[in-house]
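Limitations

Structures in this collection are predictions, not experimental determinations, and the ligand pose is part of the prediction. Treat each record accordingly. The example that follows, with fe (ii) ion as the small molecule, is included so readers can see exactly what is and is not provided: the inputs are given verbatim, and the output is the predicted complex.
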Amino acid sequence: MDFRQHLATFQEHARRRAGQDEPQPAGGRLPRALIRSIQRFQAGEDGDGTSVIAAAERAGDPVYLAAVRLFVAEEQSHAVRLARVLRYAGAETIGGHWTDTVFVLVRRGGGLRLELMTLMLAEVVALRYYRALRDGCGDPYVSGVAARILADEERHVPFHLDRLRQGFAAAPRAGRFAAAVGWWVLMVGAALVVAADHGGALRALGLARHRFVTDVLRLFRPMAASVFGRRVAAAQQGAAEQEAAGQKAVGQKAARQKALLGS
Ligand SMILES: [Fe+2]
Ligand SMILES: [Fe+2]
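Predicted complex:
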């Protein structure tokens, strides 16, 4: 796989960002739940990318490495934009959130493939989240920021998928299958955690939690298929749907118990 085209695109967008003077309005009002949610996404976007850059360095392709460095810079520009949104709404940034720590722990010790598979979970969640923010926040400035971030995330997905396809091309069938099942399980888990953790914000944006989860999984399906192949992907989705059904049953049981306790 030749990453020169990806690198050229990242370079073009870095040039555009450098030449742009983005507005920094003040005095915005956003629902409290949405502010808390944006604070967590801002912290998540604000990583320094050390671990993915180190993994890309070990992969030994200087063009890919240069593209990864620009990808990390682009994610950091999202953190800067979201920090502006928070200032606009009279709120501060936060240092970090436990979900970021989980992400770091999952990735620690793995190679570039695990690094990218974990990053992809965040990218897919981001695709649905920023679309909801763009369409549902009701504030032209915040909506514009979400639209610009969303456009970047839409380019990140094929960039990671191209490298993942290359990374798994020579892997044995059993290894590919295990990786694919693991990826689906992690994706379902990540979607459920974000839906639970950002439920108030999603509601404020007009998106029900269960809809968020199903939309994320619908986005993810062709991505998993593009890395691991359709037959393997169909099998993994069956496993993931079973997992989701199990989680739903657990949630319903918890809700019933809560209702009983409350009555
Ligand atoms: Fe981002
Ligand atoms: Fe991204």
